[in-house]
Every structure is written in structure tokens, then in C-alpha cells.
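Q:
My hope is that you can spare some time for a protein that puzzles me. I hope you can help me see how the letters and the C-alpha cells relate. Thank you; the sequence and its C-alpha cells follow:
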Amino acid sequence: MPENTQERPPSLRRATLSTADISFFVVSAAAPLTVMAGVAPIAIVLGGIGAPAGYLLAGITLAIFAVGFTTMSRHVRSGGAFYAYITQGLGKPVGIAAALLAMLGYNGMEIGVYGLLGTATVDTAHALWGIDIPWLPVSLAGLLLIWYGGFRSIDFGAKLLGILLLAETGILVLLAGGVLFKGGADGLSLASFTPGNVLVPGTAAVLAFAFTAFTGFESTVIYRREARDPGRTIPRATYIAVCFLGLFYAFVVWTVIQAFGNDAVVKAAADDPGGLFFAAITTFVGGWAADLMHIFIVTSVLASLLAFHNAINRYGLALAEEGVLPPVLGKVHARHRSPYVAGIAQTVLGLAVVLGFAAAGADPYTQLLLWVNTPGGIGLMALQLLAAIAIPIYFRRISHQEGVLRTVVAPVVAAVLLAAAIVLVVSKVDLFTGASSTVNTVLVALVPAVFLLGIALAFRLRRRRPEVYANFAAEPPPPTHTADPNLQGEPPCPLPTPS
């Protein structure tokens, strides 16, 4: 019998990412330093000294969502992340629509940030060296740098993000330590967490900002194929990410309030929101630390871009394997084991959007960043809501031994809270964009429009490519042995048959 010499095509690098590695990807995507220095001052202006509680409440909501989400991750082994979960619970038409919504969400969150990279670098160059540079070359250089980071192996990206994340969180810890050591402006106070300061009209706006600060925390499951023992690694990384972000955000915002004092911080934030954190760290640590913060904001943005770029590439790879996107996007580099064609496609899309905004004379921050990020953020929140709804339906369809708290109570509570959060964000969308009502209507309407487009695509696939439709988000066959370390934590489970 002749020997089969045909080589198997390269695939993603298995059993590579630890819990810490995946946590680095997820927390880096949230860009803690950028969120704190750039957005938290506005939250303080709107919500007063009770703003830290808004971040805690958002974190609690997403932790409740994570209970059902991580429970389902033990049963759904597909590489499609959100859309696979939604398909298993709500059916193929909704799942295919969710897949398109995921591409809108992650691309929107990533591409818009190239505008932030340009403005952050321009501000840093002016603050440190007194020079003015154009934003567009910076953003274009960032596109090339992020493409290269995604082209390299996933463990290279994890190591790089680990270094960048330690830098940006380290400077915030340094700020907090200086404030605590010196006792703040008027002594330390816990008034930020009293009901009288939390239950104020501005808290709704703070919550809207707070939920967007967690964007990307759910992307842990995207790395299932590359994770070590994914049955344990994925849940741990998800809980670490959401708990760290919730507690860290609340703590840092509280310490900045202490730096100025409860009576003076709102006016200070209103007078100079962009300089609030720099003024605090200059006073309590030193001017050299403020210089470092300027630099680390740029690296924070780069880390966020790389984390989202890697997530998008893996979504593109999964959808190419499903047959929804062109097969060429499913190619994996032989040496780096990265979805390099999907990375090229995503970079080209980013280039087109950045150049389009630049050609129109748009502002890189108020338009490229905010306008592109807004439908991206709302789209990802909508995916979380759909996933929360899908979880209890999925567990009703299969035989399992999971408790009712994890499979029904937590996801239902999360669905109610997430729906309320989406209403808050949409109702306060003018605070995010600063745009006209017409522009805001278009930005918000993109999310349901893409979802409906996905529903139409699903019915088209069912008519014209029934084999693709039938196999969409299908579970891989359960392992027949456990000798392969890449299959650890993947026990066989009964599979539902979504319509």
C-alpha cells in the first residue's frame, strides 16, 4: 500500500497560552491606562465622587455574565467563540447574524483606535519634546507594527502584551501608591461608596462609560484552540480579567478623587479632563512619572490594538473555515502558526478606513476614534446579551450536570442587566460621540442593520449552500483518547441540534 506523503496544512499552535497569557490579551484590549487617563475624568464630571462605584457595578454585572458564559465554555468547543455559543442556543440564523455582528464589533473597536494612537502620540511628542507631528503617519506606522505583531506567533504576542500591560498598570499603581502614602489632598475618604453619592442622576452616564471600559473581556474563548487545558484556562482567564478590571478601575478612580479631594475633584476634572491624571501623578509622585505616563499611554494603545487584531484574525479564520468568508482567510502561516492572511485583510481594511477619514479631513479623535468605536462597542454588548439569552436555552437542550444557578439564574440576571446597560449606552450615545443626532442615529442603527443582514445571509446560505449552513458552528468530534496534551480539559458532551 503506498505511503500517504501529503502534508497536512498548518494550524494554530496548540497548547501554547497559559491563563496569564490569555489574561494579558484580554486586559490589554481594554487599555486600562488609556481608559483611566482619557475617560475616567469625564465619568467624574458626570457622576461626581460616586464614579468609582459605577465601575464596580459594571464589573459585577459582567462577572454574573461570566458565570454562565464560562460554564457553557466547558461544553462548546468550537473556535467561533460568541457566534458558536449563540448558534448552539438560538439557532443558525441568529448565530450567523451574530458572526457578522462580531466582525463589526471587533473591527470597530480596533480600527477606530488608530485615531487614538495618532492623537496620543502627537500629544506625547508635544508634552515631552515640544514638537508637533502629524497624526496620519503615526497611525499608518501603527498599522504596520500591529500587522507584524499579529503575523508573529501567538506566544510572541502574549509576551509583548505582558510587558506592555505591566508598564501601564505599573504607572497607575505608582500613582495610587503616592496618593495613599501622602494621604491625598484632604485625608482619605470612602464617601465615594456611600449611597448618597452613588445614587445620583449622573450615575447612569457613569455606568454607560464603565461598561465600555470592559470591552473585549469575553474574548478569552477566542483562544480556545491555542490554550493549555482550555476547560480550566478559559474560565480562569475570564474571571481574572473581569474581576481585575472592575476592582482596578474603581480603585484607581477613587485614588484620583483622593488626590484632589472630594470637594475639588469635579471642578478640576471639568477644567482639564485630559490633564487630571497627569496633574495628580506630578503632585504625588513627580514630573518624571508624568513623562512616563505620557509614554505608557502610547504603549497602552498599541497593546489594545494588538489584542483586538489577534482576536479579529481568529474570528476571520473561524468564519473562513465555516465557509462564510473566503477560504483564503483560513490560511495559517507554516512557521508562526498565525492566521496571517486574515491579518493582512484586517490591516488592509484598517488602512482603507484610516485613509478615508484622513481624506475627508476628519478629526482622528472625535471622529475616527469615537464614530468608529461606537457601533463596535454597542455591537459587542449586543453579542454579550445574545450569549446570555442563549445559555439557558442551550442547557435546556442537552443532558448535563451543571447547577441551575450557573445555567439559568446567572445568565437570566446577566441578560436583564446587559439589556439595561445597552439602553443606557444608546440613550447617552451623544456623550460618547459628541456628534449630531443624525450621525448618532446612523452609528447606532449600524448594529441592528448588520444583524438583519446576517439573518438574510443565513437564509441565503440555507438555500444556496446548504452544506455550509448545516455545518455552521458544528462542534468538533469529541476526543477518543487523552494522550494528546492539546485535548486536555475537553470532555465529550451531548450536542444540541440548533435549527
